[in-house]
Amino acid sequence: MKKVANNFCPVVAIDHQDSRPFHRQIYDGFRTAILRNNLSAGQQVPSTRQLAQELGISRIPVLTAYSQLLAEDYFETRTGSGTFVSQSLASLKSAIAQPTNGNGTHAGNRPVSRRAQAVTTLGSWPWVFGWGAFGVGQVALDHFPFATWSRLISRHSQRVHARALHFSDPMGAPEFRKEIATYLRTARAVNCDPEQILIVSGSQQAIELTTRVITDPGSQVWMEEPGYWSVRRVLMMSGCSPVPVPVDDEGINVEEGARLCRNARAAFVTPSHQLPLGSTMSAARRIQLLEWAEDVGAWIIEDDYDSEFRYESMPIASLQGLDRNSRVIYIGTFSKTLFPSLRVGYIVVPHDLTKQFVAARLASDLFPPHLYQAALADFMAQGHFARHIRRTRQLYRERRSALVHSLQQEFGSSVEILGAEAGVHLVIKLPPDISDLELAERAAQEKLWLWPLSRTYLGPPSQGIILGFGSTPDREIPNAVRRLKCLISELREANAASESKAGAAD
Ligand SMILES: Cc1ncc(COP(=O)(O)O)c(C=O)c1O
Question: Among 44, 199, 351, 369, fewest CB within 10 Å belongs to which?
């Protein structure tokens, strides 16, 4: 069988004006790339013939350079396989590595924006990326119809029309947008037609794009307090000021919002299932919020991220469906209904804003990729999406009941459970002597992924933890809750011991 080279050609520049001969330029190019770690020990290099062809020169200087590099042990050959960077360099690398300039690698003025600097202070969160018990945002992958999904992906990757591989509509694929509009009108009572649907890479991009279209640097935006942490990053990056508006069991407190900042440019809300506390916005509050927006000329961003999963009643209709003044920009995602790594979500854009949204889209990633849109359009049209939601709703109902039951069994009435009526997470409040951040950090070491409630506040926080139940099978929940109880007891004991030590020292 003909052997196909699997190696890329490294950047070895040949300069015809350079006084050094070609073989010396090639030798220096490889040597520098190896010492700077751009080529690593064991990595294959191109054959002399391939490199000569790429550089457009004769093979002789390449052969001369290679034999020098072989003689000095920068290269080694393996019979029948080709030429490689010497394995023996692996252990010597750190000793011989050279900085890229005499002053070190980060010399000189290196300005970054104040916004980027501010966002990095939000810190790293070990519990975000862990997989396992209580992980927030994790879904039941064990029940995902992978066979159907693979069939659709395979079909769409095999039979692709050239048009689908070229630049396409910045709003997204028309057939997919049609399916989404039908779904939203039917299941979420959203007033929309396919022309308003803009396909994005998840709610996060939706929030970012929307913020760019409707705000200016310095604009004030209501955020639920406590609220969705990722919105804070977006607002900071856009130079907006978040205005934390308290939520209660009817949702965002509109009167308080108006008192704090009546003329805000927008309000970001999660009316179907408030993140994190889980309340559903009451009808009265919805009307109050819409009236406020109409009065002051503000926008409402409705993040409807997990409303498909409601356990004690039918799903609650969207806020957008009540809006008579096209003030609501509705955002949805497939991250909870299917899985987050799809990175597919959508915005229902008010008709009069589509031009601005398209312009903003063209300024960022131009248009969404084709393959998942095509597969998802079929997945929805053939009924798999609706079926999967029905199945997982029942499954999450069971997982949620198992979690609530275990929490009640282990903690009795000493913990308050919030927001268990919908979605794939709930919240338990902690007594103030327990730091949720400390608990989450300790738990992460044991692969329990608790999200500290305090991180969802902009102002003075309450202590608590957010527990996801989407990915944990019922049978594993009691054990996970027992481990959680142990961790809380250990933390309490450690706190008591350090307090008594401090007391003795006084
Ligand atoms: C309030 C809220 N909105 C949206 C999302 C989903 O974001 P994305 O669609 O970017 O994955 C999440 C995920 O946890 C969320 O908590």
Answer: 351
**Per-residue pLDDT tens for 357-376?**
999 999 999 999 999 999 99
Under 8 Å between Cβ of 296 and 263: yes
DSSP code per residue over 448-476: --PEEGGGG-SSSPPPEEEEE-SSS-GGG
pLDDT, one tens digit per residue, over 469-493 is: 999 999 999 999 999 999 999 998 8
Tell me the CB-side half-sphere exposure of residue 251, using CA atoms within 13 A. 22
Sheet holding 416-418, edge to edge: 416-418, 425-429, 464-468, 451-452
Between the CA of residue 246 and those of 226, 262, 444, what are the distances in Å? 7, 14, 29
Which of 77, 87, 70 lies closest to 30, judged by CA? 70
Instruction: Compute the distance from residue 162 Cα to the ligand 1 centre, in Å.
Output: 33
Q: Which residues contact 193 (CB under 8 A, 6 or more apart)?
A: 181
The length of the chain, given as a count of residues: 506
Looking only at Cα atoms, what is the longest distance across the chain?
Answer: 83
Q: Is 345 in the pocket of ligand 1 (CB under 6 A)?
A: yes
Region 212-232: what's the mean pLDDT? 96
Amino acid at 24: R
The C-alpha atoms of residue 136 and residue 147 are separated, in whole angstroms, by: 26
Which atom of ligand 1 approaches the CA of 136 most closely?
14
Q: Which amino acid is at 476?
A: E
pTM score, two decimals?
0.88
State residue 504 phi and psi, 5-degree precision: -65, -40
| Three-state SS at 247 | strand
Choose which residue among 203, 336, 372 to substitute to test ligand 1 binding: the one with the highest number of ligand atoms within 8 A of its C-beta.
203
Produce one character per residue of 24-41: b if its CB has 16 or more CB atoms within 10 Å, e if not: ebbbebbbebbeeeebeb
Question: Tokens 């020169």 correspond to what residue?
Answer: 57
Name which of 172-186, 284-298, 487-501 the model is least confident about.
Answer: 487-501
Q: Which of 95, 425, 465 is nearest to 278 (CA)?
A: 425
Q: How far is the CA of 83 from the centre of ligand 1 (A)?
A: 48
